[in-house]
Prior knowledge:
Elements: E1 13-15, H1 29-39, E2 46-49, H2 61-74, E3 80-85, H3 90-102, E4 107-110, H4 123-137, E5 140-146, H5 156-164, E6 169-175, H6 179-196, E7 201-204, H7 210-216, E8 220-223, H8 230-242, H9 245-262, H10 270-280, H11 301-310
Parallel strand pairs: 1-8, 2-3, 3-4, 4-5, 5-6, 6-7, 7-8
Helix pairs in contact: 1-2, 3-4, 4-5, 5-6, 7-8, 8-9, 9-11, 10-11
Amino acid sequence: xxxxVNKDRFGGLIPATITPMDENAQIxxxxxxxxxxxxxxxxVVGLAINVDTGEGPTLTSDERLTLLEIARRRLRSPKILVxxxxxxxxxxxxxxxxxxxxxxxxxxxxFPNTAFRGHxxxxxxxxxxxxxxxxxxxxxxxxxxLQDALGGIELGEASLRALAxxxxxxxxxxxxxxxxxxxxxxxxxxxLEAERGREIAYLxxxxxxxxxxxxxxxxxxxxxxxxxxxxxxxxxxxxCAEGSYAEAIELAKAFQPLxxxxxxxxxxxxxxxxxxxLYLQGVIPCRxxxxxxxxxxxxxxxxLRDALRSAGLPVVN
Length: 317
């Protein structure tokens, strides 16, 4: 039996990591391990593997398992390892969750299933789907409210209430990129915590207002922006928690313009831009992404170089 994840374990930055690939879009495990070694030293409380930033939906089941196993070796407890969970069916989701559990994941981030898209959502269908995963894989779950531009679903109050009733739901990642939706969803989650007498960690996935998420009282961050400039984004959360707001503001002034350049419209290109930035900094040896994603062309690199320099980060390529 996997122990329920304590809410306090989410209290900080959990970067959604990238998956380095070679020029043939095959996973470069050596580069991946070096990247993890680089990132775990920067004040993170955990890692999120095989999620959207890491191109999880494009990876094979075996590839996702390999990446998790490497991450578990690199990430020592009590830091938390989150596995992205993408699958076509509930049965397949259970199978993938079991593999993630056996590879050392502490919780799975349950990606929105296309069967639940459209309005109105079906709270009971969502509840059954998540319950099957939790019970049959013996796994803690992180709910995922994601913007439509990245293939997501806004869960709505009825679905949130249905899902929060499940004992193995330990957190929610809110990533609509809408501050009003972020605040209203937090209000619902806080009310549900009080009603049910147990904690649900409220994690920001909103790369476009990181500091504001921290100041508003999120319990942690699970964000793609944390894949780079990691130390400053992690320290910004700590500064807010300590009440060192002037320091937090200065840190955000340094990192947010770069984040905004990476997450500029179309937001779907952020995965390729993140890899391009890490390549330009010399953190990874190649900026390739796996189709159908599209690599940043040479003509698109100079604006990213400018953004990195403005953020005070090294540019070596």
